[in-house]
Design brief:
Elements: H1 21-25, H2 33-75, H3 78-114, H4 137-141, H5 144-167
Length: about 180
């Protein structure tokens, strides 16, 4: 980077092109320390973003679930509980996706950290890790942290559901649609 000029601003630096003479002198399998660190920073940024998405999903899940279960208790209506439980399952599936992506990028991070030459320069491809047992979708879905968080919410919903049926059984009966009113 150039030194700042008289006005305090520096001249913009340009990144070398892939086919520039400077890059042709260096063998393609050689990756500088700075490039490796930058690649690791990019991957880490994605991991942090996936973790933030997972946190937001959990907070939205708690908000929606508390609202639907609260209305279900207030109105003693099992149908609202079912809506809340379906929302929990939807958030669980979405959170599974983001946790899986985070795990995939952690594997890529470890691969770049251990042997940067084995991964193409600045590659973000995680397809080579998708067959691993730890990142299979249903294994992530059943991870202990997700099972505890969403399982507690589902058990709570099931409890509200049963209580709504016990205290207001007339809502369980389906209306007779066979005769005109």
């Amino acid at each position: 980077m150039a030194a700042p000029g008289a006005d305090g601003w520096s001249e913009p630096t340009t990144l070398p092109l892939v086919d520039s003479p400077d890059n042709l002198e260096k063998p393609s399998n050689q990756i500088s320390r700075e490039e490796n660190v930058k690649h690791l920073e990019w991957i880490l940024g994605i991991v942090v973003r996936m973790n933030g998405n997972s946190f937001l999903i959990k907070s939205w899940c708690l908000t929606v679930t508390a609202a639907t279960y609260g209305f279900a208790v207030n109105r003693v209506d099992w149908r609202l509980t079912v809506i809340g439980m379906l929302a929990v399952l939807g958030f669980w599936l979405l959170d599974t996706y983001f946790l899986r992506q985070e795990r995939l990028f952690r594997l890529l991070y470890d691969h770049v950290r251990i042997d940067a030459r084995a991964v193409p320069r600045f590659s973000m491809a995680t397809t080579r890790y998708r067959d691993r047992e730890a990142v299979r979708y249903w294994n992530v879905f059943g991870s202990i942290t997700l099972r505890l968080f969403y399982g507690i919410l589902l058990v709570l919903g099931l409890t509200v559901f049963i209580l709504a049926i016990i205290f207001r059984p007339e809502l369980v009966q389906m209306p007779d649609c066979s005769r005109p009113q």
